[in-house]
Known about the structure:
Elements: E1 4-6, E2 27-30, H1 42-51, E3 56-59, H2 67-79, E4 83-87, E5 104-108, E6 121-123, E7 126-129, E8 150-152, E9 156-158, E10 164-167, E11 171-180, E12 188-196, E13 202-209, E14 220-227, E15 234-241, E16 247-256, H3 257-263, H4 268-278, E17 288-290, H5 301-315, E18 320-323, H6 328-338, E19 342-346, H7 362-387, E20 391-396, H8 409-421, E21 427-430, H9 456-475, E22 478-485, E23 493-496, E24 502-509, E25 514-520, E26 531-537, E27 549-553, E28 559-561, E29 569-574, E30 579-586, E31 590-593, E32 597-599, E33 604-606, E34 612-615, E35 631-634, E36 637-639, E37 646-649, E38 663-666, E39 671-673, E40 678-680, E41 684-689, E42 693-695, E43 700-702, E44 706-711
Parallel strand pairs: 1-31, 2-3, 2-21, 3-4, 4-17, 18-19, 19-20, 20-21, 31-34, 32-35, 33-36, 34-37, 35-38, 36-39, 37-40, 38-41, 39-42, 40-43, 41-44
Antiparallel strand pairs: 5-16, 6-7, 7-16, 8-15, 9-10, 11-14, 11-16, 12-13, 12-15, 22-24, 23-26, 24-25, 25-30, 26-29, 27-28, 27-30
Amino acid sequence: MKARTTLFLAAHFLLAHRVGHGQEFPVGAWFPGLFNNQAEHFAERLDQVVEANFNTIHSALGVRNDPSVNGVFLDLAHQRGLKVLLYSWNVPPAWRTASRTYWTKTVEAEHRRFFTHRVGTRDGGALHANTADHTPGLLLDTPPEGPGVFLRYREQKLNDRGQVVQNRVRHGIHVFRLKTDDNSIPERIATLRILRHSDGTLLRTRDVRALEFREVDTYQDFLIRYSVPRGGDWVRYQVEWHGTGNLWVDRIRAHDSYGYRLFSGDFDADIVNDLAAYDGVSVDPPWRFYMEDEPHWTEKDESIAYLNDLIKAQTGKSGVASFHQTRQDFMRHFVFNVFPSEFLVNFYTFGLYVPEPGQAGYATRLQSALDSYVTWYGRAREVAGEAGIPLWAVIQAHSWPSGLRDPTPEEIRVQVNLVLAHGVTGIFYFMYSSHTDEGGRPDLQGLVDGNYRITPKWREVQALNRMLGELDETLLQLTSDAVFRGDAPESPVRRLSDPADYHLGAFTHADGARYLMVVNRRCQPWPRRPRTVTVELDASELNGPAWSYLATDLHTGETAATSNGLSPYFTLSLGPGEGKLFRLEPWDDEVALKGDVKVPAGVKLTLPAETTVTFAPGDETGGGKDDLRSELIVEGALDAGAGGITFRSSDEAAASSDGNWYGIRVAAAGNADLSGATIQDGLRCVEAYETSTVDMTDAAMVNCGQGVELLPASP
């Protein structure tokens, strides 16, 4: 049985952005609401968002806690086909447990990073003081061996001027999780202590009797409340085992009173009521709930997970979790504790250290910044893949006076294309509209200015969003195989003509076809002439024969044959920051075409024997000499003389001499060996020029409107 290669040309995807056509590629923006505007402006602002080709908004609403106004906002958004990702920053206090208004920290007893003791043995993921092997002693902090674990009892929050604006956690609640195998003993089994680290001052202690355990072999929480003295210090924990029964220590969880109340369920009813205000009968519900703004370590993971589970139970919607840390172990810990629906990550590339285009050092600093950018997304890509959840990216589209400069349209473009090369399936821009500080001075500069007037950045994002909407059905069916800069082993690319300037992503489509995305990392808009790069493919990595491949540009609809042989190649041109996605398929056995295909000058296409090439009626590329019929355009060389090769209509019942497809067009300098081939059902079997080189020895022409048309040489 012959294998079948079906080539879906880009015009199949180049449709107007559709509403309700199935799953969409989320393209959203942080829309900070209308802090300084009235509700009557909602409609016109949202119309502008739609005009920029967004399908999703990520919003704190900016209208504080008025459910009626929020309801108007949500209704207007949904009327325009916009999905709403609801941010929890400015909603009632119970929601702020996902923000920075509490403190909680968990340390696991088996984690060497926190505990350095040598008393006890590992047992089932916890530490066990075994009476047969050890004498009674301190399990978590053994003074002769040095301190076991430190936790700061107070943190300070600073504003952007370095001023202390909030002191936290002077009154702590600590929960020790223990178990025993004998709860019949009336004596003490353990003493729990909290000490001030600097001088060993005992802050609080508690004795635990075996009888206090309700069940054997079941972990139970034991709580200690304490107040820390002033002066700024760390705290130290001790669990002293008294030699009765066996004792296991699982973890210690430190909270402030608010965090403890959260995990005790004290706020569950408030959170459910808040959810009802956004998920009521009269208000279209948010598409997702956004759970956190850039957690900076693991102390909030459990609270985010708690809220996520509660929201999912109430609404059926799991939250989107955001993250901004550069260490991969932090990312992994976060994702596997929170289990979000999507993993949304951000890395703001264009700091003040990256000069403006045209300034000294721009090219070098830009590439260094992009190196950090792709390193970060490479780590995030691995973690999202391990968790089996979609990876979404936040694109820097703003400036910030104290740390970030305004990216150019080309720099926004390169950010989008680089994350697409990493296989992201959702993109959000930060941010949409501009802010001013309390003094009215420009602060965060977004895609539109403070009066919602559009900028060159807005126009660039509008075009990028349109592209994402046109390619969404393809992008959402791709699985990322590899991402690399320049040449890379075990990739579909053997060599690039200019490797340093390009980043590539390799993918496999759900139908098994291979895809390649090529991104120009250079963003200088001068000169505006596109950069050209030759991509040499590795046929062995593409799992195909050593024949020529078809490379279909999903952005333009153009399909070109690569050179044949062990190293097929194709050439493309890219503007500043531009990226292009290609579908790669071999000419092998049976090839089904839906539009024009070109054999470029300098390329030789060799077809194996018994290959059948079919042309569907119509032309999805809408180009060539006849925009209603598909054409095989030979500007280079076509070798179809191996025997048994057929070119025909895909409609096997076709009997009309009008031609379901145009035919084989050989350019003035083209060369085609069609000896022994069969060409049928075309408007013309072959069209050539007086200067073309065509061998049609023993060729058969069947059911064509015209067998061969010979045109005069081009002037």
